[in-house]
Amino acid sequence: MSDKIQLDRKKIQETNAYSCLECGKCTGVCPVSRYSKTFSPRQTLIRTLRNTHPESLKDANVWRCLTCQQCDTICPANIKYVEFTQMIRQFVGVENREGTCSHGGILESILKIMTSPDLKQQRLDWLTKDYQTSQSSEYLYFMGCLPYYDVLFTEIGVQSLNIARSMIKILNYFDIQPQIMSNEKCCGHDFYWNGDMKNFKKLAQANLEQINTLGIKYIITACAECYRTLKIDYPLQMGSQSFEVIHITEFLAEKLKEKNLHLKTDKMKLTYHDPCRLGRHMGIYDSPRLALSHLTGIQYQEMAHHHKRAICCGVTSWMNCSQISKQIQHARLNEAQAIEVDTMVTACPKCQIHFKCALQDKEFGEHIKFQIKDFTEIFAEQLP
What we know:
Layout: H1 9-14, H2 25-29, H3 41-50, H4 61-64, H5 70-74, H6 81-92, H7 106-114, E1 139-141, H8 146-152, H9 161-173, H10 189-193, H11 197-211, E2 218-221, H12 224-238, E3 244-247, H13 248-258, E4 268-272, H14 286-292, E5 298-300, H15 323-338, E6 343-346, H16 349-358, H17 362-365, E7 371-374, H18 375-380
Parallel strand pairs: 1-2, 2-3, 4-5, 4-6, 6-7
Helix pairs in contact: 13-14
């Protein structure tokens, strides 16, 4: 890297970074900064713009940002911090990354394997005759990396394929037999946010080539990251698309309201965790809560931080799962414990994985008395 950082000034302007007031509000709400004295969104931005610390772009702090968008929501100058961070990561390049991949890098390796055009996967072994699909449906269920998560995280009590089963059960209940791609690739979310645009585009292109041959009008997903990637990043990076992308929380909220349908449940006390990608990134807060209000037996209560102020699950793109991550996760789980719920509902598979991983700390996990379930599981359990 030269002494002068040659970042594209036009792209920087698009993030509004030059408008920084140096007020520090971004650092004040940052979940990483709360537990790390060496991390500051403001300092990363200012050092880049002032060009006084060119090597700072290569330090680990560039990769510690969770891109949770908490800073964006409070910035009085309307700076797009997460876009700025993603831009820096592209510029630095993954080969110069000063961060560590979680779980020994196995997930990143799996994603790289998926970029191979010759790869043939066995993703649908779980799909039995109990679940109805169709090769001519205008609906596609995009399941993401659930089959891989199901193998990797069973030891911490995660059964990711239950989300896939629940999705098909819900769609079937509303007379939808979706298509499922047997060779679907990862959406590319993690590559995108780690700045690896080359591999992101390989995955996106492979998925789009398949989707465009199927006559798909609607893609439904239960993953907040897939939802954001398919709806925002694919059109932005790959050109306009002919399909509509729907998250299952939107789908259920609309269908339950349209049919004035209320599902009888056993009495339980629930709270809902807003995933960063679904909430702050995409602005979806009301749909999951509206859908949950159609469960007649539940008592719903918000945690101390909810909607735009919701605490992140502590890890993004399988990067830097550290003690700081655990502190963030513990803070969130303690909020749910404080209101004495039976179940904390998530709407992103990774959130569930990260929270259940935090519960493996015996000293911490022993005092957590609630279960963690995916949004789809809660509803599928109530259907015949």
